[in-house]
């Protein structure tokens, strides 16, 4: 089979490489020439574990890269759209890229094909795309909704071993094409769920909204623990032990971020408004997600006094570990607040320094932040250290080295990954999310 995937970002490139890995002929299309040039040199333009290996073993035999949409879609059984759907000012999903690509494909195709909507799009988009397509071609273009559920940091594994493959179509022939493409990934158990395009579109938003709500819920409980003097880590394990609830996405911290949860929650609220349905839970989850970063700053001000001219070191800039994605990262939100409060910031991350630099520059605060490759060098002269992202290498740090270079003796654990007793034993005061403060004896 031959397919094209338009949009070679986190989703498009992972999908393209994984489809190629099963013998499908794949062309990944993008408008970003710099990204394509790197891909053609055999480089993966962002950090995603194991992706480089899959790309390398398929490129150029079964996997190629192009900016020429017309040529790329020639002879394709299916063309996937995996371009971004960023938020508009009002929270709704910006569909301009999706609609433009769909229109171009319809205009350029010289044969019948299946057009697959992989981008996360609001309910009703499939129908909108069908209308756009119908006006541009007389070929039979069947529009299928196939939302993607991979998570950055484990995207290749998620794509190769999906929990489910949702296919929204009422067209049997189009379904058969998708079934054949996905068959190699679901050999052990058929995980394909066929449904209407509208239901498929809603599955994606409902899944992300529920996961984000779990995070906001436990953060609200963490605030309660803070106020009551309880330990949210004990509460979390007590709650998660109930098999009906489970432990996943029940980790308190500085809040969720990334390119999906915040944007998809806001889009869900907008979709509800458009349909006359109040999505109050999603709204509350968005609101609750603002609190942990502000609470952390307040804790620091209580302990350090004014932050003006204080030096704060952050470990972690990406929105979660194992990715270099800094979109809507809690670490960057905290940096904004720290800079506004007059602090000097020193920050580090194993993978996200380059994208963080771009982001800090566009927020015009790069001149207030020093970035370091080495986490211990980053601690030099710091009054406080904040763990902002739970990278594995931050879980058991060398406190002696930290103690030698830091000026102060305060560690703020924004992800509750350290053992309070080991921090205190090393002579540091420990402050976390929803946990009692732990202070060494004077
Ligand atoms: P991304 O920003 O990493 O990649 C999008 C790519 O599309 C970019 O390389 C961009 O240059 C390209 N592009 C934009 N306009 C184009 C055009 N006209 N022609 C060709 N290429 C074009 O985005 P992403 O994170 O891969 O997300 C893509 C979609 O998948 C979004 O709707 C997102 O919500 C959804 N999604 C993302 C994830 C995730 O974890 N990142 C997971 C599931 C679903």
Summarize the structure.
With 442 residues, the protein is an alpha/beta fold. The chain has 18 helices and 14 strands. It folds into 3 domains: 2-195, NAD(P)-binding Rossmann-like Domain (Rossmann fold, 3-Layer(aba) Sandwich); 204-288, N-(1-d-carboxylethyl)-l-norvaline Dehydrogenase, domain 2 (Orthogonal Bundle); 291-431, NAD(P)-binding Rossmann-like Domain (Rossmann fold, 3-Layer(aba) Sandwich), CATH 3.40.50.720.
Keywords:
binds nicotinamide-adenine-dinucleotide, alpha/beta, 14 strands, Rossmann fold, single chain, 43% helix, N-(1-d-carboxylethyl)-l-norvaline Dehydrogenase, domain 2, elongated, 18 helices, 6-stranded parallel β-sheet, 442 residues
What does this 3D model show about the protein?
Helices cover 43% and strands 14% of the residues. With 442 residues, it is an alpha/beta fold. The chain has three domains: 2-195, NAD(P)-binding Rossmann-like Domain (Rossmann fold), CATH 3.40.50; 204-288, N-(1-d-carboxylethyl)-l-norvaline Dehydrogenase, domain 2; 291-431, 3-Layer(aba) Sandwich (Rossmann fold). The strands form three sheets. A six-stranded parallel sheet has the order 3-2-1-4-5-6, sandwiched between helices. Helix 11 (261-275) packs antiparallel against helix 12. The protein is elongated and about 80 Å long. 47% of the residues are buried. The model has no long low-confidence stretch (mean pLDDT 97). The structure holds nicotinamide-adenine-dinucleotide (NAD). Nicotinamide-adenine-dinucleotide (NAD) binds at residues 6-12, 29-32, 35, 82-85, 97, 100-101, 119-120, 148, 150-152, 259-260.
């Amino acid at each position: 089979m031959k397919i094209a995937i338009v949009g070679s970002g986190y989703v498009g490139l992972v999908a393209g490489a994984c489809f190629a890995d099963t013998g499908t002929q794949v062309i990944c299309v993008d408008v970003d020439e710099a990204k394509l040039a790197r891909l053609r040199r055999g480089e993966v333009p962002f950090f995603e574990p194991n992706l480089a290996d899959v790309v390398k073993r398929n490129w150029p035999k079964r996997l190629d890269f192009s900016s020429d949409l017309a040529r790329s879609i020639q002879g394709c059984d299916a063309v996937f759209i995996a371009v971004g759907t960023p938020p508009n000012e009002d929270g709704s999903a910006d569909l301009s890229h999706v609609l433009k690509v769909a229109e171009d494909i319809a205009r350029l195709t010289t044969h019948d094909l299946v057009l697959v909507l992989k981008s996360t799009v609001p309910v009703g988009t499939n129908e909108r795309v069908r209308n756009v397509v119908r006006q541009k071609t007389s070929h039979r273009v069947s529009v299928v909704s196939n939302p993607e559920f991979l998570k950055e940091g484990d995207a290749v594994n998620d794509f190769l071993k999906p929990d489910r493959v949702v296919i929204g179509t009422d067209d049997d022939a189009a379904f058969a094409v998708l079934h054949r493409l996905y068959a190699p990934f679901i050999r052990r158990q058929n995980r394909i769920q066929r449904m209407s395009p509208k239901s498929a579109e809603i599955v994606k938003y409902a899944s992300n909204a529920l996961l984000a709500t779990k995070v906001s819920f436990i953060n609200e409980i963490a605030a309660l623990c803070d106020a009551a003097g309880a330990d949210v880590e004990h509460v979390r394990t007590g709650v998660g032990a109930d098999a009906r609830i489970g432990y996943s996405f029940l980790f308190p911290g500085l809040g969720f971020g990334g390119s999906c949860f915040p944007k998809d929650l806001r889009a869900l609220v907008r979709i509800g408004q458009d349909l006359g349905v109040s999505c109050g839970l999603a709204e509350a989850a968005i609101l609750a997600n603002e609190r942990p970063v502000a609470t952390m700053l307040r804790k620091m001000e209580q302990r350090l006094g004014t932050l003006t001219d204080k030096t704060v070191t952050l470990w972690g800039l990406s929105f979660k570990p194992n990715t270099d994605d800094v979109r809507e990262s809690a670490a960057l939100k905290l940096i904004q607040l720290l800079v506004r409060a007059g602090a000097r910031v020193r920050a580090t991350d194993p993978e996200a320094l380059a994208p963080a630099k771009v982001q800090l520059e566009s927020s015009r605060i790069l001149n207030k932040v020093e970035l370091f490759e080495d986490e211990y060098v980053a601690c030099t002269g710091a009054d406080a250290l904040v763990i902002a992202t739970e990278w594995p290498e931050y879980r058991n740090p060398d406190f002696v080295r930290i103690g030698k270079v830091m000026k102060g003796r305060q560690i703020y654990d924004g992800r509750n990954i350290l053992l309070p007793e080991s921090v205190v034993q090393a002579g540091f005061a420990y402050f976390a999310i929803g946990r009692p403060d732990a202070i060494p004896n004077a």
